[in-house]
Amino acid sequence: MAKDYYDILGVSKDANDAEIKKAYRKLAHTYHPDKKGGNEAKFKEVNEAYQTLSDPQKRQQYNQFGSNYQQAGGGAGGFGGYGNAQGFSFEDLFGQSGFSFGGGFEDVFSDVFGGNGRSRSQGQARGRDIQLEVEISLEEAYSGISKSVELDLNIACDSCDGTGAQNKKMKQCTECRGQGFVERQVRTMLGNFAQRETCNTCQGRGEIPESICKSCQGKGVKKQRKSIEITVPEGISDGQTLEMRGAGEASAGGRAGNIYVHIRVKKHKQFERRGYDIYYTQDIVYTTAALGGDVDINTLAGELNLKIPKSTQSGEIFRIREKGMPHLQSRGKGDMFVTVRIITPKHLSRRAQQLLKDLQSEGI
Ligand SMILES: [Zn+2]
Ligand SMILES: [Zn+2]
Q1: Residues spanned by CATH 2.60.260.20 within the chain?
Q2: Neighbours of 28 (CB within 10 A)
Q3: Which residues face 307 on adjacent strands?
Q4: What is the CATH number of domain 1-121?
Q5: Of the bound ligands, which one is closest to the alpha carbon of residue 124?
Q6: Which of 12, 305, 326, 356 has the most neighbouring CB atoms within 10 Å?
Q7: Distance of CA 254 from the midpoint of ligand 2 (Å)
Q8: How many CA within 13 A on the CB side of residue 90?
């Protein structure tokens, strides 16, 4: 592999999001090209490493494929969407107080531009996204399942409806005269330009409380334990991510963040999933294989009777239609493929031995 992103950030392979973000901030600060003693090449490298390691999906692909994972066809799409990040002014980023940890790269830009960093649009800061990992069994992936998890979340303050204002009474922001943003000259490598910046006084809302809500001290949000119901649809695969829009943390006056649920499906002892099909091996005694007969086999939908035709060979595969995994969000199911394996008895009675000897003399 070409580059070791963990080395670049100076963190261990199992570093958590907060550690990665902390290392990134420190290094980006050190190498920022606008700074004395800055180093643009290093700065770009640090950014590249952070973009990958701060995104759980990209990080997983990187761990699997190395830094060339973008060519590995890993899917997901949207890589390198922040390729021009170096062109932005990071002074804002580091100059800002109240920086929030725990989110991804986008959150960093949310703090700078207020809202959606990708479009550089003005707006109100969005609530933090929450990343969760849920492990389920193959049976649960087959039937779909609801799971509830308890989270400590910032939720909208109920006394002020999230406005932060006592009795929800607001007045126009004097700093930005209600516009929600202020303009500022910014110096970058590419020259000077005017940049709109979210108004600090009103956080982009254009209005401020007449007086501060006593219940939340004007923050508009309160940390609270909340039970979140996660509905995992039938047919889900290992590695897929569910997005629960607006279920993440609330933000004063802004949109709530999302919850991303990363699904892990445990390996099954008997069934192997390939796409929507299920593969299964069934042992049968050789007399059934030779003479034909019925065997009960396990499927994800319960037991099922499989007819074995006479003269079945070991390794033969039987296809049972529509007994595989249900299609995700569409009708129909995959198939089940049953490979039969002929087993030879370990213990033989005297009579069985005699019968086999007779068969042997018949050349069977
Ligand atoms: Zn303002
Ligand atoms: Zn309040």
Answers
A1: 272-361
A2: 23
A3: 294
A4: 1.10.287.110
A5: 1
A6: 326
A7: 14
A8: 24
Give the separation between CA 59 and CA 46, rounded to whole angstroms.
14
Q: What spacing in Å lies between the alpha carbon of 196 and ligand 2's midpoint?
A: 28
Tell me how far the alpha carbon of residue 198 lies from the centroid of ligand 1, in angstroms: 8
CA 28/CA 360 separation, integer angstroms: 79
Q: Tens of pLDDT along 192-238?
A: 878 788 888 888 889 999 999 999 998 889 999 989 999 999 999 99
Ligand 1 centre and the CA of 182: distance in Å? 8
Amino acid identity, position 104: G
Query: Quick one: which ligand is closest to 202's CA?
Result: 1
What count of Cα atoms within 13 Å lies in the side-chain half-sphere of residue 203? Answer: 21
Tell me the whole-structure pTM to 2 decimals. Answer: 0.56
Region of 95 please: left (phi>0), alpha (psi -120 to 50) or beta: alpha
Q: Ligand 1 centre from 199 Cα, in Å?
A: 5
Per CATH, the homologous superfamily of domain 272-361 is Urease metallochaperone UreE, N-terminal domain (2.60.260.20)
Q: How close is the Cα of 172 to the center of ligand 1, in Å? A: 8
Cα-to-centroid distance, 121 and ligand 2 (Å): 27
Distance 218 CA to ligand 2 centre (A): 6
Given this model, what pLDDT does residue 112 score? 35
Which tens digit of pLDDT belongs to each residue from 87-131?
A: 333 333 333 322 333 333 333 333 333 333 333 333 557 889 999
165 Cα: distance to centroid of ligand 1 (angstroms):
15
Tell me, in angstroms, the distance from the centre of ligand 1 to residue 143's CA.
Answer: 50
> What is the tens place of the pLDDT at every residue in 9-26?
888 888 888 888 888 888
Q: Supply the pLDDT for residue 116.
A: 34
In the chain, CATH 1.10.287.110 sits at 1-121
On the question of pLDDT at 66 being above 50, the answer is yes
